[in-house]
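Input.
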Amino acid sequence: MTAKIAVVTGGSRGLGRNMAMRLAEKGIDTVITYNTKKDEAKSVLFEIESQGRKAAALHLDVSDLRSFDKFSAELTQTLKDNFGTDKFDFLVNNAGMGATIPFASATEDDFDRLLNVHFKGVYFLTQKMLAVMNDGGSIINISTGTTRFCNPGYSIYASMKGAIEIFTKYLAKELGPRKIAANVVAPGATETDFNNAVIRSNPEIKSRIAQNTALGRVGQAEDIGGIIAFLCTEDGRWINGQRIEATGGVWL
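Output.
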């Protein structure tokens, strides 16, 4: 049986890295993208291939919409050269950036920067990828717990993720005829290098969040990757148009 293939944007580190590793455990081959972390991306490829799965890494700046045609062509060629096919099955829109910007001091440049990465880029990259996707696959968009609860300084970031959550419902509806499911996974505070490693670098913040989480700790990358992998298996095929929050029960 031919292996399924996932494309994971921002797969060189943090959550994306773990997603790629957990997908490999499920027998799914992976194309990861990176923006600046080429060496880290190569390390992920080595780990995936050591599990007996196929993998490839491509450069992608999700904020540069003009590059999407080139990326699509490179992806198509990579699928042919490395995987013996011309289409993939699962798109995980994970690439992102963090920024803590108080509303009163937010600028239009701040707004546009996060808009391009977290909403506009995801919207039009997904549109571009439809021609390269197999019917019967799925799209998983990464959101945030801060669309449910408020964290000061996240008004722009969370607003873009809120837009992604609505967008995902429309994907599920409009791509239904192709049997392509679309879901959102919304992590909470997770100890990675995201947003300048704000959780890892601030013990007081980490402790406060842990105390307000039902399971008594902040998240780890390993808490998220398995959820993504599950949604890309037959066991998760009937989940569609849903927001799955993975926060350990924070601020219930």
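The chain is about 45% helix and 15% strand.
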